[in-house]
Amino acid sequence: MDLKNIENKWVHQFAKPIIIAGPCSAESESQMLETARRIKESGADVPIFRAGIWKPRTKPNGFEGVGVIGLNWLKKVKEEYGFRTATEVANAHHVEAALAADVDILWIGARSTVNPFTVQEIAEALNGTQKPVFVKNPVNPDLALWIGALERLLSQNVQNLGVIHRGFSTYRKTKYRNIPNWQIALDFRQEFPNIPMLVDPSHICGNRTGLAGVAQEAFNVGYEGMIIETHCNPDEAWSDASQQITPEVLADIISNLQIRNSDISAFDDEMDRHRTLISDLDFQLIELLSHRMKISEKIGTLKKDNNIAIFQPERWKIISEYAQQKADETGMSSEFIEKVFKAIHEESIEVQNSL
Ligand SMILES: O=C(O)C(=O)C[C@]1(C(=O)O)C=C[C@@H](O)C=C1
């Protein structure tokens, strides 16, 4: 059994999209029960209730979670409202406590996924469990680390697996708390189509306004579900207040989501025609790039023979400004053109360096 042909039958017990909602942190029994009641009353189709029991915080002296007492509140939520329950585990003690309290679904957080020792410890504590276990992407954009965590679980005979895309840390200031880097998640999906992927718009956005948009983007590319922080009184939440929403707002977001069908057979012909055109253009792009690199190689030889630095900031400035101007004229995103030209320039420098 390997990750590619894993069966993951657990996923079929839930209708798509699978929604996991609940507060960032369990704070009190009344906060948990009120949030659960209002999610139920909102009419939203949410089968799984989440709450953080142990919270990894960036700085010390913050609220680090209520600890095991919160597991009793999760149990009450299950008994009174019929939700399945889910929480994060970050070490073997958490796993033991969560399994003893019969939490239904566990997840490994982004800060744990980066550390193979931690993942190994959690995986061993989970040995043989039938409960679904989700692995959030590591904080840094490292696909191998993400896959490695799943392999560690599988090697402990944990076969009901899923992943959560919660975005990646960045030093740059952006509109996201954690940039989505969709391509990494899509690379993952491509390689492991049997492992369900949920989006975590709360951690990608870090605010309330972007949640619906990010969730929709994820469903547009075929994600199986989402995990979203929902609190009965978000402004007063003890952690991550700015990204939590009320159960009523959640219901509104869910009702506006459009879930796309992954089957394209209904309009095969038209798709085929467009895809042929795209393949043709891709081929031309590669030929053009190859031509450009050959010219760069000639320039590189001239520079080498005349002892001139490879990186020419003035010339690069002209090229990138021209590209930006063209992006504007053609209505393309300037971020996209910037990324493409940076990649081309970087490769051109590599080519000249290798001479
Ligand atoms: O114009 C040059 O000097 C080049 O070598 C070409 C090129 C490019 O690929 O566009 C590569 C490196 C320089 O920093 C600037 C531009």
From TrEMBL:
Annotated keywords: Transferase
PROSITE patterns in alphabetical order: CHORISMATE_MUT_2
Entry's EC annotation: 5.4.99.5
SUPFAM superfamilies found in the cross-reference section: Aldolase (SSF51569), Chorismate mutase II (SSF48600)
One Pfam family this sequence matches: CM_2
SMART domains: CM_2
Ranges for domain Chorismate mutase: 265-355
Keyword Nucleotide-binding: no
InterPro entries with a match to the protein in the record: Aldolase_TIM (IPR013785), Chorismate_II_sf (IPR036263), Class-I_DAHP_synthase (IPR052899), CM_dom_sf (IPR036979), CM_II_prokaryot (IPR002701), DAHP1/KDSA (IPR006218)
Full protein name: chorismate mutase
Organism: Kaistella pullorum
